[in-house]
Prior knowledge:
The protein is of the alpha/beta class. The protein contains ten helices and twelve strands. Helix 1 crosses helix 2, helix 4 (76-86) packs across helix 5 (110-126) and helix 5 runs parallel beside helix 6 (160-173). The two termini are 16 Å apart.
Amino acid sequence: MATITTTGAQIGVCYGDVADNLPPAREVISLYNQNNIKRMRIYYPKRDALEALRGSNIELMLGVENERLQAIASNQASADDWVQRNVVAYGNVNIKYLAVGNEIESGPFAQYVGPAMEKIQNAISRAGLANRIKVSTAVHPVILQESYPPSKGSFRQDHRAFLDPVIGFLVRNKSPLLLNMYPYFTYISNRGSISLQYAVFTSPSVVVQDGQYGYQNLFDALLDAHYAALEKAGGGSLRIVVSETGWPSAGGDGQVTTKENARVYNSNVIKHVKGGTPRRPGSPIETYLFAMFNENLKRGDRTENNFGLFYPNKRPVYPPINFN
Length: 324
């Protein structure tokens, strides 16, 4: 049994279920509790998981499905209905965030994200839950025009029509931006200029000096590039929650995608997020590891099936990581 101690509960784990061989939800919730994992992200209102979470202390990030956004954006009654059925009906589930859409900064659904966030916020307020639940959306680094050095961070102009209403909403409601951020993908796309040590938090000294800020790892550099971009776009007051990060243990070239690299990366994330970044020091970085399980039905590169901390039989993929 892996022992995961989430002191200060800065770390959550994403419960993805694109698989046909996972244990029942009650057993999954038990596995979270056995490992002292205090936060969970699910991507849609997964009924068996919501039922199993009743009365638990696990904090939940709950996704509003991409395919529901158009209906919700165009009709307050649709938003009210969604909140009644998936939030109010589970009053004894500790829902902390609603993620209105996941990684849809462009394409046909993007135009509905901002209006859907407004409608869901209205529904949460009508239900008397606005003080307890924050509404946001999850983006990923495709929104950046520049990211190096981090202080040059800026958003792509062709994404501003999506981003500006989202940033305005988050600032007004004092909600964080949710960011799915994987140094792994940045590293494998830039292996000629980025070292593995920098990507997995094992560089012995500063690698990138950016004015007054020194960066010893890629995680901080990517996060601060997003903070710099937010500052330039009227979002300087916002906090970022890292809503996904992780490292695949298999499926790639066998040198980078190893169990050891995955263990080192995830272990170091856990230690590192208790502090801040060079640009935003002092405050812990709320972070969700992806994912609880290897998911055998995920499409794309074979690494996509191998981000789990556990196999579907609940055995740890690599030697236990300790969140202390």
